[in-house]
Amino acid sequence: MRNGSRISVIIPALNEEKAIGKVIAAIPAWVDDVIVVDNGSTDNTPAIAAAHGARVAFEPRRGYGRACMTGIELLEQADIVVFLDGDFSDYPQEADRLVDPIIEEKADLVIGSRTRGLREAGALTPQAIFGNWLACTLIGLLWKVRFTDLGPFRAIRFSSLQRLGMCDPITVGPWKCRSRRQRPACAASKRPCPTVNALASQKFQAPSGESLAREPRSFTQFSAIR
């Protein structure tokens, strides 16, 4: 619990045995509940997650969004929900920078941006950079709301999440809601956080013999939306 708010973390995971234990170990002690949703791993991801104290759920239907929503269904008395990838490309210990603006009633949703400032080479592929730019540009044109990234490291007030009306169980997860034509009321704040290359996994394979030690090398921003 942090300042009277119960915090839950949901981690969708697919073949992240090299990273998932490090991710869970780096989550702050004030987090009340850690849920790892295994999305069909063929390695030891579920066993390692359980050994590190996480609740493990299984979602055999592939899809990042499906895994996220399975985790949401398991939430127990959460006030704030943090979503985090299982590849250790972000810094879980900096979750306070996401949840504190919500606790302080400054925002309902806080998204970590990976595109501002310095970042480790290769942490974002050209496709990811372009895709985020395109999505953020379209959101800005349609709803007049400015984003710099739609990254996976984010926190949201649980009551707000329940009101979103998620509709895409395959790709974008709980941050895509049913289409609304009205323009949402928004405010923004910016806060630094680091992002680096993921540890070796199905999605990111480290070169043979390369050290998997992580060091903070980059800083990005947080955007808070009310």
Q: How would you explain this protein's 3D organization?
A:
The structure is a single chain. With 226 residues, the chain is an alpha/beta fold. It has a single domain (7-201, 215-225), classed as Spore Coat Polysaccharide Biosynthesis Protein SpsA, Chain A (Alpha-Beta Complex). The protein has six helices and seven strands. It has helices at 20-26, 45-51, 64-73, 96-103, 126-143, 158-164; strands at 7-13, 33-38, 55-58, 80-83, 109-113, 154-157, 221-225. The protein has a seven-stranded mixed β-sheet with strand order 3-2-1-4-6-5-7, with helices on both faces. β2 (33-38), α2 (45-51) and β3 (55-58) form a beta-alpha-beta unit. 38% of the residues are buried.
Terminal Cα span? 22 Å
Total strands: 7
Total individual domains: 1
What would you report as the Rg, rounded to the nearest angstrom?
17 Å
Helix count from the secondary structure assignment? 6
CATH architecture: Alpha-Beta Complex
The rough form would be described as: globular
CATH topology: Spore Coat Polysaccharide Biosynthesis Protein SpsA, Chain A
Spatial strand sequence of the major β-sheet: 3-2-1-4-6-5-7
Q: What average pLDDT do the residues reach?
A: 78
Q: Major sheet: size, sense and barrel closure? A: 7 strands, mixed
CATH class assignment = Alpha Beta
Q: Can you say what the CATH homologous superfamily is?
A: Spore Coat Polysaccharide Biosynthesis Protein SpsA, Chain A
The class by helix and strand makeup works out as: alpha/beta
